[in-house]
Amino acid sequence: MPFVLQTVFALPLRALAWLGSQGTRGVAAVVFVAAAVPPLGALLRPYITEAILVLLCISFMRVDLAALYGHLRRPALIATATAWTTMGVPLIVGLIIYAAGLNDRSPGLSVALMLQSMASPMMASPALAALMGLDATLVLVTLVTSTALVPFTASLFASLFLDGMLSVTPATLGLKLLGILAASLLAATIIRWVFGAKAIQRHRKPIDGFNIIILLIFAAAIMGDVVNDLVAQPVFTIGLAALSFAIYFTLLAVTTLLFRRIGYERALALGLMVSQRNLGLMLAATAGALPPTTWLYFAMTQFPIHLAPYMLTPIARRFTARADGNGEAAAGKAT
């Protein structure tokens, strides 16, 4: 019987480990599978909140507490990066929307852009940074501080730029975000206490594979109507896709340039984090009660979110190799 049970559990774990070993290729494949199978989206959309909670739980569960404390001892960089992603980005986006009169011209797109800018970085950002060979710890610490603040900053910016445009009040939005994050953190803490950090680290590949499956569930739920929208309004849909790529790479480039003094490798890691916004968190907090244009834009953002890490990996490795080379050269001069 023990041998049978071991075999039963070994096969799924092996499959998950293989999926986890695919790295950025697996993440990129998610978006195409989700878009290619519309019935999957219709089936999974009721479970979008649960998928978000699981993704958050996995990320909190894998926090390296020692690395977290180490970075918090040097708070200036963390504080600056946190202020940029939680305050700077939504303020700039909100002012652009106001100046362009987008609230009146396209309320659904206005809501989408503001929710995107107000969202905290994706909880998968540290894992993606690690897969690309970037400084995952710096991303993780900034992610934690940004996520802790987002219930309050999102409520603030919603009241400034989206008052009356959401199905929930700004205060309720903040409270829902706080509840979702607290529940995920509590569940992750219990899992770490029961299984231990070493076991979680030892099974990192199967956990990566499981994370990709949950990403597929979320992507399929949000992208279920993409094919129909593309057929019904191709120009508008392609335009939203182009806009999503433009915003993604603009945030990436601006952040990398702003933080270039800390080294392009670390600056690119922060750029990746800032451009990967956790739209799922906003969907959960608003219970998905959003205009059709907002849903469609969120679906289009899944393409740069899932494809960019794969596309950027060669650049990231070049920066990392250059940083390692500079470090070795400095060490040689010192000796």
Automatic annotation (TrEMBL):
Q: Which domain of life is it from?
A: Bacteria
Which Gene3D superfamilies did the record assign?
Answer: 1.20.1530.20
Q: Which residues cross the membrane?
A: 51-69, 76-99, 138-161, 173-195, 207-224, 236-259, 279-300
Keywords assigned by UniProt? Membrane, Transmembrane, Transmembrane helix
Q: Does the keyword Transmembrane apply?
A: yes
Q: Does the keyword Cytoplasm apply?
A: no
Q: What is this protein called?
A: Na+-dependent transporter
